[in-house]
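ABC transporter permease subunit
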Amino acid sequence: MRIGRPARGLAERVWLVALAAVCWQLVTSAVDETYFPPPTKIIEALHEVWFSGPASHAFLTGNAVDDFSSSLAHLFTGWAAAGAAGIAVGAAIGRSRVLNDLLDPVLQFLRAVPPPTLVPFFIVVFQIGTTMQIVTIAFGVVWPVLLNTADGVRAVDPLQLDTARVFGVSRPRRLLLIILPAAAPKIFAGLRVALSFALILMVLSEIVGSTTGIGAELLDAQRAFELLTMWAGIVMLGVLGLLFNGAFMLLERRLLAWHTGAQRLTN
């Protein structure tokens, strides 16, 4: 019974993807269109480019080691920096009306600027390289974390804060023990959205200013008209996005299990 439920849940989640893949295979095999290869050929290209290495290297090729290490390092560094900054600034403006009124116009202006339009500016300031790519990712993904944190902090039950004041709990302790834990569900939601954006901006920054990484591999394949390699890169990005989202949701459920339990008790 315990094994059957996870298997059934997995089947309910992936059946549409499997059906779409089968339809894609049948249609593209029948049409034989160069620009839209069947999934079987894309998987072969994916294996050849990144997963045909020796077993001692977890079957990763030299390209895979270079591309994944570069891309994932930039992605998670930019995402972590944006997460830290977003939580800090969001908590500050969420708890201070004066600070919110002062910074809100600037933040709304910066949030409205599409990150791709700032890539030329970042290249001029930071030059092409790792710093430029990390800054591009961090600037683009900080907003979901910042805004969700501010909303979560504002929504903390005033009764909890008043009780903490009565018992003489200091402001730093109130922030760490009451405010941030209460806002944690919204903070985690912002971090999860930011992780998806980080993957997109990682590719963008590599296309513009890098010779290594999955984005650079995509650009090289497009320039050389290697369509199978290009499609393999697109599929690889989709798989990474799926894995990141699934792993983050599992982590979120574990870390916020106490919050779900507290809500059940309250209700």
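thats it. The chain is about 80% helix and 0% strand. The CA atoms of residues 112 and 256 lie 31 Å apart. bye
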